[in-house]
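User: For my dataset I need records formatted as: sequence, then structure tokens, nothing else. Please produce one.
Assistant:
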Amino acid sequence: MAYDSFGNLIKVNDAEGQSYSYTYDGWAI
């Protein structure tokens, strides 16, 4: 799980609809 500087969970969906959580090191499921 990845959080922004405010502590909110950073969560996005890629073009295929898979859910990813963004980390500063790159993309991680």
